[in-house]
Amino acid sequence: MSTFTTVAAALKGEHATGSQVTVKGWLRSKRDSKAGISFLAVHDGTAFDAIQAVVPSTLDNYESEVLKTGTGCAVVISGELVESQGKGQSVEIQASAVEVVGWVDDAESYPIAKKRHTFEYLRTQAHLRPRTNTFGAITRVRTTLANAIHNYFHDNGFNWINTPIITGSDCEGAGELFRVSTLDMANPPRAEQGGVDFSEDFFHDEAFLTVSGQLEVEAYCLAMSKVYTFGPTFRAENSNTSRHLAEFWMVEPEIAFADLNDDADLAEDLLKHVFTRVLEEREDDMAFFQQRIDKTVIERLQTVIDNNFERMDYTEAVDILKNCGKKFEFPVEWGIDLASEHERFLAEEHVGRPVVLMNYPRDIKAFYMRLNDDEKTVAAMDVLAPGIGEIIGGSQREERLDVLESRMDAQLKEELWWYRDLRRYGTVPHAGFGLGFERLLNYVTGMENVRDAIPYPRTPGNAHF
Amino acid sequence: MSTFTTVAAALKGEHATGSQVTVKGWLRSKRDSKAGISFLAVHDGTAFDAIQAVVPSTLDNYESEVLKTGTGCAVVISGELVESQGKGQSVEIQASAVEVVGWVDDAESYPIAKKRHTFEYLRTQAHLRPRTNTFGAITRVRTTLANAIHNYFHDNGFNWINTPIITGSDCEGAGELFRVSTLDMANPPRAEQGGVDFSEDFFHDEAFLTVSGQLEVEAYCLAMSKVYTFGPTFRAENSNTSRHLAEFWMVEPEIAFADLNDDADLAEDLLKHVFTRVLEEREDDMAFFQQRIDKTVIERLQTVIDNNFERMDYTEAVDILKNCGKKFEFPVEWGIDLASEHERFLAEEHVGRPVVLMNYPRDIKAFYMRLNDDEKTVAAMDVLAPGIGEIIGGSQREERLDVLESRMDAQLKEELWWYRDLRRYGTVPHAGFGLGFERLLNYVTGMENVRDAIPYPRTPGNAHF
């Protein structure tokens, strides 16, 4: 009797040596010794490492099949679990049967057959790259991060709100919008002035992909007290950088009866919690990222976990930056939006741990952020982390109807009638923030390009697969 | 010293009677007695029930504020937690302070002030409806269901894969597509034949909203062994029914080295697990749905939990339907796609518990479903549940390249080159299914219209909020 096991379970010692096991997976590599033994490294996605199967030439299909396998072949291997002779592996399988389930058609053509590929090349093979060491590890860490986020919120009494992806609102101003339509673009129905008659479109009006679920989740916050979104958001910016995706996932919590300090507390607690979970649950993958991608990555997470976040006013930060004696590419004056170089100086050089910058000039921030008593700043915050800069952006929301309306133009007021209702009926102080999930994943893994942090990246010129 | 508590924690007895507590929330109702006492029912979204605060007229702001409050006002109430005199409540608060945080501007205009509203009316107040009993309960049950699904998969070694929302593929054929574009629709760039030149669009080609993440998640399945998607999907069908949304959330697991029976096992195990979690975690909300929405709803879930699902071939089901003596609106012949009346007869009357129908005629099913040896049927399955009909649809996927290609036309082959690659390099038997999340939520709660199962429903003519 052979027990089916995953590679992870076998490597973690969940089966006694001497027991008969069966693993199912794909060959990461194969080596044939002159002594008539083959060594097959089998991965199944459950752990960073493959398990080694030692295959003797005495198997019936050794010559006819085993010798002909190679990287990428799908196999089912049964045998005795034994202590490994090789270094770095606890156990291996002394194979008594090898079934080849799926062959590789022409090994030369297998796009990821060779061991080393650039990340750029692998993006063109998005359907096969999860079979590589790096992207297998990214996939598992992504899953753990997401699960840690969902459970952090669930265990703290938050409701997960699926805010809409398609929205009729084009006014939040967080970025360029994608239009969603079923009209025939070559020959759309025309309005009187020659424009398009969107009343004939699917939604009887113009519709777009959401840039943020914040406004809609606020409505749920003011009913359920603690809520969050975790879903895809979209920006149609023509930015070909390592930090921009046209489609990315965002986490946006929102808490009622809360001010900016509560918001900062939540951000700090969330990050500490999820980083702790990742270090515990994905020790194998994190060891790989540390070794091969970024030597500081575990220390970086541990620093976040172990230290209180510094809280600092924007105004104080500007003074520090002006007086630090450092020459910046972009000069610093009160009123500017800080650049990445400024943020990283503050977090990395000046403080040496995460910093929550608070109370930004009103003129560089969105209309819904709460006006402070000085009337020059709003209760906004950015969480700056060493090694990446801004990782979270949030604010206390303007809960006073008259102040809110004074910062909206006529069109905005009309379109957001329902948002204003929230301040008319039982308004309370509330706050929230946005956390870009792919940037978080890059921070955790040390990967540099967000295109490698999402299974199928969407960027200008690319909606392939 | 007063301890902040949620309504849920107070009602569940997490604080001793006699202790000083503070709750923050909104008034569901208020009653003023002639004896100079007011009874305020405060909800905060954490539990189905509100907590009652008994407010004596001796409070400083009793006349000036407390008497003027009403449904929807935001309050912070402190006082002693005492055993309740009223029926149906374990504890109440003997208030020593009431702070009114947010008033209701003109109670007459508060759109949900009255106790009874139709669900149809409440859809026009999607920003306020979570404050009602019913939609608060739906929100909590939705959260619990989603969390149970994520944790079921996580605890069983599945990776959560965020398949793309925007896709260049228009060929899966699961339904009508929404186009995604940044071109000026009134004046798009023209191709030579007068059509639109999509090479100038954001993605340099036509792009659409996804109808399913299945094909893309298969690629991850064949690397990670067990994966699932849980995200929004889109259908541009002009269907104004209680079962259709233009935007809905779908759960799609995919397992490697698995056949149709493994797929059915997974579906059965998943449903039993999540229904058990909901009954445990949301006892209060489920009691409400049972009492006010559908008297069979708890029994229905318990039936699914307690019984093995019957497995039946399509061909056998057709024989049963033809010979059962019942008159159906749509006549039954081998080869038809079963209608809801047939599915419900099988699950409700013939078997009396969930049925997994398997092996459907190839001609009514998608190209990627595995052809059976009879060459007339494919390894597809539908899970039919009493009270709703089809709740899950899935299949074993065609893993043999030649058979797969024989069911694809030239255009499909070209567009899905990468999908065919998966059969060329280490192909293995694999299977999966799709579970519509809003339909699941309706099944659990007894709600009839999927527009009430998602925070902001998108339907023909409606992308409001």
- Oligomeric state of shown chains: homodimer
Give the overall form of chain A.
Answer: globular
User: In total, how many beta strands of chain A?
Assistant: 17
Q: What is the percentage of strand-forming residues of chain A?
A: 15-25%
Characterize the main sheet of chain A: 8 strands, mixed
The percent of residues in helical segments of chain A reads 25-40%
CATH fold type of the largest domain in chain A:
BirA Bifunctional Protein, domain 2
Strand order in the largest sheet of chain A: 7-11-12-17-16-15-14-13
Integer count of domains of chain A: 2
Query: What's the mean pLDDT score of chain A?
Result: 95
Q: Kindly name the structural category of chain A.
A: alpha+beta
| Shape-level CATH architecture of the largest domain in chain A | 2-Layer Sandwich
Total helical elements of chain A: 13
What's the name of the CATH homologous superfamily of the largest domain in chain A?
Answer: Bira Bifunctional Protein, Domain 2
Which value, in Å, is the CA radius of gyration of chain A?
Answer: 27 Å
Largest interface: A-B, 109 and 109 residues
Order of SSEs of chain A, N→C? EHEEEEEHHEEEEHEEHHHEHHEEEHHHEH
Q: Which spans of chain A have pLDDT < 50 for at least 5 consecutive residues?
A: none
Family (chains A, B): Belongs to the class-II aminoacyl-tRNA synthetase family.
Pfam families (chains A, B): tRNA-synt_2, tRNA_anti-codon
Keywords (chains A, B): Aminoacyl-tRNA synthetase, ATP-binding, Cytoplasm, Ligase, Nucleotide-binding, Protein biosynthesis
InterPro entries (chains A, B): Aa-tRNA-synt_II, aa-tRNA-synth_II, aa-tRNA-synth_II/BPL/LPL, Asn-tRNA-ligase, Asp/Asn-tRNA-synth_IIb, NA-bd_OB-fold, NA-bd_OB_tRNA
